[in-house]
Write a structure and sequence with these properties.
The complex is a heterodimer of chains A (about 350) and B (about 325). Chain A has about 350 residues and is of the alpha/beta class. Chain A has two domains: about 200 residues, Rossmann fold; about 110 residues, CobW-like, C-terminal domain (Hypothetical Protein Yjia, Chain: A,domain 2, 2-Layer Sandwich). Chain A has ten helices and 14 strands. In chain A, the strands form three sheets. Chain A has a seven-stranded parallel beta sheet, with helices on both faces. A five-stranded antiparallel beta sheet of chain A has the order 10-14-11-12-13, sandwiched between helices. In chain A, helix 5 packs across helix 6 and helix 9 runs antiparallel to helix 10. The termini of chain A are far apart. Chain B has a domain of about 110 residues: YVTN repeat-like/Quinoprotein amine dehydrogenase (Methylamine Dehydrogenase, Chain H, 7 Propeller), CATH 2.130.10. Chain B has a six-stranded antiparallel beta sheet, with no helix packed on it. A four-stranded antiparallel beta sheet of chain B has the order 1-30-29-28. The radius of gyration of chain B is 19 Å and the shape is globular. The chains are: A alpha/beta (about 350), B mainly beta (about 325). At the A-B interface, strand 3 and helix 2 of A face strand 16 of B. Chain A: Keywords: Chaperone, Hydrolase, Nucleotide-binding. Chain A: It catalyses: GTP + H2O = GDP + phosphate + H(+). Chain A: This is Cobalamin biosynthesis protein CobW. Chain A: It holds the Pfam family CobW_C.
Chain lengths: ~350, ~325
C-alpha cells in the first residue's frame, strides 16, 4: 500500500489595503467568479462585509517575535497554526486567500512564509495584492506608515474607486505610488473589477520571476521624499558580480539596515558562472538561488532594487558597484565597513 | 512482505483511511480505538466504522474521562464519541476552532478555543473559562487532575482547576510556545517552541531548562511511565532528556533509534515500561527500549509522515496513523 503526501505547495494570495479601499469587494469577486477553483479564505474579524465561501477562517493577527537573532523578525503566529490545520484537508481547495486588517503591517505575513519550516514546505506566497482607494490614498499616505508599507510590499496594486476621481487626479496618485514602488503592477479599477487572473496565480515571489517586469516609471533622483517616507532605489552594473563580495556586503546591509528595508530584490550575473542568480529579502530575511542559464543576447547587467525608508542612495550605489569583479578590494572593504557597527 | 512490516502483518490490522490522521486515542474502558481525521470523521478500529464528527476537520482528540473519546473541530464543536461509535455534542463555541482537548479520569474535560480554556464536568456542564493573553496552543492536566497547564505566546499558564479565585501561575519565557506537558510527578512543566527548542520550568524554584539542538520543530513529546525520561520528536532519532539525578540541567540527552537521517515526528511512551514508540517522517513506526536501546520495527516506511501514535491504557496495543491516511493497530500482548 503506498502512502505519499508529496504535493505541490498551495499558493497563498495576500490581500491588503486600508479599511474601505475595497478589499472585501475584491475578495468576493474572486470567490464568486466562475473559475472552477476553490479557495480557503482567512479573514480578520473586522471584515467590512460578509464573505460567502465554504471554508472561511477567522484570524486574530497575532504577531510574534522570533528569537532567531534577527531583531525585526516577526511572524504571524495565528497564520502558522491556521495554515498548518488547513494543510490537513488540502484536497478541499486549490489556493488560500488571506485578507489582512487595514492597519496590518504586511511584513510579518510575508516573513511567516520565509521563516516557518512547515509553512515553507506546504505553501508558497503567490503575491501581495494591495487595494487602494484612488480618492483617499494621498491622505492615507500622509498620515499612516501602514499605508506606505502596504504599497511598498505590493506585487500588484489595485487602484480602486476610479469613478470617484478625474483622470488627472488618478495620474497624480499613480505617480505617488510609483515613487514608493515602481515595480508593482498597477491595475485601475472601479468596484475592484480587475480580471481575476491579474491577482491570482501570479507566482510573484518565485525567484525566477523577480524583476521580470520592467518598471513603468522609475523614480528619479529629483523625486525627494522625507526620510521617514518609503521610496525605492535601483542600480544596474555592467561588470560581473563577485559572489563573495556581494554576499559579504548585502549581509551587512541587511543586518544594519534591515528594519528600514521593506523589500530588496536583485538579479545577479556572477563572474565565472553561466547562470543568473536571483535574490530577494523581506527586511532581514533573505532568500536566493540560481534561476537558470544566461540566454544568448542577454546584456548581463546585474540589478538590485531596494524599497524602504531613509535609503542612502550614494552608499547603496557605491556598495553595489564595489561588488563587481575586478574592482579594487579595498573599495568593498570600505563599503562593508560603512554598514558595520562602530567599534565601541 | 518487508521484514520491517512483520509485526503489522502478523499482529496488526491496517487500513487506508483516505485523509490526514490528526490523532489517535484509546478509550479508557480499554476497548475502543479512535482515529480522528482531517476530513472531519472519526474512524473506529473495530470494523473501521466511520463516524461523522465534525463539519470540516477534526483538530484534536483525546480519551474522554471514563470511556470513548473527545474530539475538537474547526466547526467550533466539542464532540464525544462512545466506544460503539455514537457521536454526541458536548459543547459548541461558535465560529472559533476547538484546537485542543484534554480529559482526566476524575471526570474533568478541557477545550482550548482561541485564547480561552473551557473546563467542563463529566456531564458537559461548563465549570469555568480560563483566559490567556494569546491563543492557547496546548493544554495538559497533571496526573491528579488538580492542575491544568496551557501554552501560549511568551510562556505557559498553570491553573488550579478547583480554585475559587482563578489566577494562574505564569511561567514566562519569551517566544512562541506551541505545546505543553506536565511531568507525571507534577514537578516540571515543559513546552515545545517555534524555534526548534523545548523550554522547561522546575516548579519548586522556577528554575528554567532549555533543551535545544533540534534540527526541526518538536511537535510531539511524552514522559516515560515513571517520569524518568522525556521522549521528544524533532530530531533524526528519539531524543530523551533525563529527569532524574539532577537532570536535565547540565545533562546530555540519550538518543534512540537514530542513524537513518529521517526526522522523528511523533512519540508515545508505554504506560508501564520504559519503552517508547516513535513514528518518523517517512512513515516508519518502531518501538525502542530505553535501557537497552533495542529497537523493534512495527511498520515499514510508506512515504508519508507518522502524524498520530498512541498506546492503550495497559500497553498491549499500539495505534498509529500518517498524514497520507494510512492507519494501523497492532496487538503487542504476550502470546
Amino acid at each position: 500500500m503506498s502512502d505519499t503526501t508529496a504535493r505541490e505547495p498551495v499558493p497563498v494570495t495576500v490581500l491588503t489595503g486600508y479599511l474601505g479601499a475595497g478589499k472585501t469587494t475584491l475578495l468576493n469577486r474572486i470567490l464568486t467568479e466562475n473559475h472552477g477553483k476553490k479557495f480557503a479564505v482567512v479573514i480578520n474579524e473586522f471584515g467590512e462585509l460578509g464573505v460567502d465561501n465554504d471554508l472561511v477562517v477567522d484570524a486574530d493577527e497575532e504577531v510574534f517575535e522570533m528569537n532567531n537573532g534577527c531583531i525585526c523578525c516577526t511572524v504571524r503566529g495565528d497564520l502558522i497554526r491556521i495554515l498548518g490545520s488547513l494543510m490537513k484537508r488540502r484536497d478541499r481547495f486549490d489556493g488560500i486567500i488571506l485578507e489582512t486588517t487595514g492597519l496590518a503591517d504586511p511584513a510579518p505575513v510575508a516573513q511567516t512564509f520565509f521563516v516557518d519550516e512547515d509553512v515553507k514546505r506546504a505553501t508558497k506566497l503567490d503575491a501581495i495584492v494591495t487595494v487602494v482607494d484612488a480618492k483617499h490614498l494621498l491622505a492615507r499616505l500622509a498620515d499612516s506608515t501602514e499605508a506606505q508599507e502596504q504599497i511598498a510590499f505590493a506585487d500588484i496594486i489595485v487602484l480602486n474607486k476610479m469613478d470617484l476621481v478625474t483622470a488627472e487626479e488618478a495620474d497624480i496618485v499613480e505617480k505617488r505610488i510609483r515613487g514608493i514602488n515602481p515595480y508593482a503592477e498597477i491595475r485601475r479599477a472601479t468596484k475592484s473589477d480587475v480580471p481575476i487572473d491579474s491577482v491570482i496565480g501570479r507566482d510573484a515571489f518565485n525567484l525566477a520571476r523577480i524583476l521580470e517586469r520592467e518598471p513603468e516609471f522609475l523614480s528619479g533622483d529629483d523625486h525627494h521624499e522625507h526620510d521617514s517616507e518609503v521610496n525605492s532605489v535601483s542600480f544596474e552594473v555592467d561588470k560581473p558580480i563577485d559572489a563573495e563580495r556581494f554576499n559579504a556586503w548585502i549581509t551587512q546591509v541587511l543586518a544594519s539596515k534591515g528594519q528600514d528595508l521593506l523589500r530588496t530584490k536583485g538579479i545577479l550575473y556572477y563572474a565565472d558562472d553561466s547562470r543568473r542568480f536571483a535574490f530577494q529579502a523581506v527586511h532581514m530575511i533573505a532568500d536566493g538561488d540560481f534561476i537558470g542559464e544566461v540566454k544568448d543576447g542577454d546584456p548581463k547587467r546585474s540589478k538590485i532594487v531596494f524599497i524602504g525608508r531613509d535609503l542612502n542612495r550614494p552608499w547603496l550605489r557605491r556598495g553595489f558597484e564595489a561588488c563587481q569583479a575586478g574592482e579594487d578590494e579595498s573599495k568593498i572593504q570600505a563599503e562593508i565597513a560603512r554598514w558595520s557597527p562602530a567599534p565601541v | 512482505m518487508s521484514d520491517t512490516d512483520f509485526l503489522l502483518e502478523s499482529r496488526g490490522d491496517a487500513q487506508d483511511l483516505g485523509a490526514w490522521v490528526i490523532g489517535v486515542a484509546f478509550g479508557r474502558e480499554g476497548r475502543s480505538c479512535a482515529f480522528a481525521l482531517g476530513d472531519g470523521t472519526v474512524r473506529l478500529a473495530e470494523g473501521w466504522q466511520t463516524v461523522a464528527a465534525h463539519d470540516g476537520a477534526c483538530l484534536s482528540i483525546c480519551a474522554d474521562a471514563k470511556d470513548g473519546v473527545l474530539t475538537g473541530g474547526d466547526d467550533g464543536r466539542l464532540m464525544r464519541i462512545d466506544p460503539d461509535g455514537t457521536a454526541s455534542g458536548v459543547a459548541t463555541y461558535g465560529s472559533k476552532w476547538v484546537d485542543q482537548v484534554a480529559a482526566h479520569e476524575s471526570g474533568l474535560r478541557a477545550a482550548a478555543v482561541g485564547k480561552a480554556v473551557h473546563i467542563l464536568d463529566g456531564k458537559g456542564a461548563a465549570l469555568k473559562s480560563l483566559a490567556h493573553p494569546s491563543t492557547v496552543t496546548g493544554i495538559a492536566f497533571d496526573a491528579k487532575g488538580k492542575r491544568i497547564a496551557a501554552s501560549h505566546y511568551n510562556g505557559a499558564s498553570l491553573w488550579f482547576v478547583g480554585a475559587k479565585e482563578s489566577s494562574p501561575r505564569l511561567l514566562e519565557w519569551k517566544g512562541s510556545h506551541t505545546g505543553v506537558t506536565i511531568s507525571p510527578d507534577g514537578t516540571h512543566v515543559v513546552t515545545t517552541m517555534q524555534e526548534n527548542t523545548l523550554h522547561g520550568w522546575r516548579l519548586a524554584d522556577g528554575q528554567h531548562m532549555r533543551m535545544a539542538g533540534y534540527p526541526s520543530k518538536t511537535k510531539s513529546m511524552a514522559f516515560t511511565a515513571k517520569g524518568r525520561w522525556l521522549a521528544t520528536a524533532g530530531a533524526d532519532c528519539v531524543v530523551l532528556w533525563p529527569f532524574f539525578g539532577g537532570g536535565p540541567m547540565g545533562k546530555a540527552p540519550t538518543e534512540l533509534a537514530g542513524g537513518d537521517g529521517v526526522i522523528c515526528t511523533t512519540v508515545a511512551c508505554h504506560p508501564t515500561q520504559e519503552v517508547v514508540a516513535a513514528g518518523f517522517d517517512d512513515g516508519l513506526v518502531l518501538i525502542a527500549e530505553v535501557g537497552s536501546g533495542r529497537v523493534v520495527p512495527v511498520a515499514a516506511p510508506r512515504g508519508s509522515a507518522v502524524s498520530a501514535l498512541a498506546w492503550n491504557g495497559v500497553g498491549s496495543h499500539l495505534a498509529f496513523g500518517t498524514e497520507g491516511g494510512f492507519a494501523g493497530l497492532i496487538d503487542l500482548s504476550k502470546r
